[in-house]
Structures are given as C-alpha cells and as structure tokens.
From TrEMBL:
It comes from Ceratopteris richardii. Residues 175-211 are annotated as: Disordered. InterPro entries: FAS1_dom_sf, FAS1_domain, FLA_A. It is found in: Cell membrane. GO terms for biological process: plant-type secondary cell wall biogenesis. Residues 175-191 have a biased composition (Low complexity). It is a lipid-anchor; GPI-anchor. This is FAS1 domain-containing protein. GO terms for cellular component: plasma membrane; side of membrane.
Length: 236
C-alpha cells in the first residue's frame, strides 16, 4: 500500500522579518523585543488554530501628541499591556475587517488582564478604522495577510482608557460620517500597577525559531528605551 504524499504546509511567518522588511517600525520592534511581547505574538502566530491580528504603529506614531507625553511615565507592565492592546487574539483578514460596523474586539491585553482593553473597529468611507477614546486610526497599509496572521500598519499608537483614562478635556474623537461615537464608561485610569521589570533581549538562543530573541532578566528603563528609540529614528 502506497502512503499518501505529505501535504505541503506554509511555514509560520517571521514577524520580526515582516516588520523589518516593511520599514518604519524600529520603535515597535525595540519595544516588542525588550518587553518579551514579540515572542508571545510569534508563538500565537505559529498556532494555525488561533492566529493573530496585529496593528503595528509606525515610528512616527510614537512622536505624536498626546502619545509622546503619555508614554513618558509608563511602567514596564503598562508597556506590555499597551503592546498587547495592539493585537487581536485571533486572525482577522482585511476583508473580514471591511465587513465590520461598530464592532467590539477583544485583544491579547483583554486576556492577559482578565477583561477590558477592547477595540472598536468599523469600516466607513472605504477605510477600516480602529477606534479608542483617544484617537481614531485608519489602517494605512497591509504588511501581511494570510491565515493565520495579519499585520496592519497604523500611523497612530492605540491608547486604551484602561491605562490612560479618558482625555482630560476632550470627548471621544469625532467620527467620520457614518462612524460610531465611542463613549467609555470610566473617566479615570486604573490604580497604579506594580510590575516586574521588563527583560532585555539576549543574544543567545535560536531567535529565528520565534522571530524574536529570547529574554534575560536584565531590567530596562522603559522611558529611556522609548527615548533612545525615538532619537535613533530622528537621527537616521
């Protein structure tokens, strides 16, 4: 009896290489590596039964206000939550997102924090918009979109009310015609977190297997990390 020929399978996408190839994601890559969130994203991307959808802020997004000011005082654990807020815990293709209308999605941060950290996504005037109380980000381009992984570029950092509360003196962003208005229920950020230190990247280990380098236990000062990333971006 002849055994059937093995079925060819597509190897998991390397998220690091996808972001490097696209360019304009140096700050995000630095934060993903230093926090360990990149390895977590890659593990989920490697699971075809689950998948992941990532909203990747470009370098310029971290220089915009109020993002630049808000990130000055974040703790390592808050950086982890912020990064995880930029990923849905399943695969959503661009065509699927184009069918949304004021749809709430849970994120990886929702799972990690036992609730909250939801994103509103809607398709309006030919654009997919990702909405928070602080800003409204339009998908600028698609970096990768094949089951079980999608990576979409944004020119805004998504800011969750779960970390930053509501904007002090401004309502939720005015929607484009036909888009919903988001009104979060909480007007103040949660109590201060007491996080473990974020780990720095290690040069040891087979980084190519996960796309992100394994982590050691060397603490990282988050504000300095973001500052240096932005300085590198501005200089080069």
């Amino acid at each position: 009896m002849v055994s059937p020929a093995p079925t060819a399978t597509t190897p998991p996408v390397n998220l690091t290489q996808a972001l490097i190839s696209a360019g304009d994601f140096s700050v995000l890559l630095t934060l993903l590596n230093a926090s360990g969130v990149g390895a977590k994203f890659q593990m989920q991307a490697n699971n075809p039964e689950v998948g992941i959808s990532i909203f990747a802020p470009k370098d310029v997004a971290f220089t915009k206000e109020p993002t630049a000011t808000l990130l000055k005082n974040v703790t390592p654990q808050q950086v982890v939550a912020l990064l995880e807020y930029h990923a849905l815990n399943n695969w959503q293709s661009l065509s699927a997102l184009q069918q949304t209308s004021n749809t709430e999605f849970t994120t990886i941060a929702t799972t990690s924090n036992g609730g909250g950290f939801e994103l509103n996504i809607t398709f309006v005037q030919g654009q997919v918009q990702v909405v928070t109380a602080w800003n409204r980000a339009t998908i600028a381009s698609t970096l990768y979109d094949a089951k079980p992984v999608s990576v979409f570029a944004l020119e805004e950092v998504l800011l969750p009310v779960d970390l930053f509360g509501l904007p002090a003196s401004a309502p939720a962003p005015s929607p484009a015609s036909g888009a919903p208005s988001i009104a979060p229920s909480s007007s103040s950020p949660p109590s201060s977190l007491s996080p473990p230190p974020v780990s720095g990247p290690s040069s040891a280990g087979p980084a190519a297997e996960t796309g992100f380098a394994p982590q050691t236990h060397r603490p990282v000062v988050v504000t300095s990390l973001i500052f240096l990333s932005l300085l590198f971006f501005k200089l080069f």
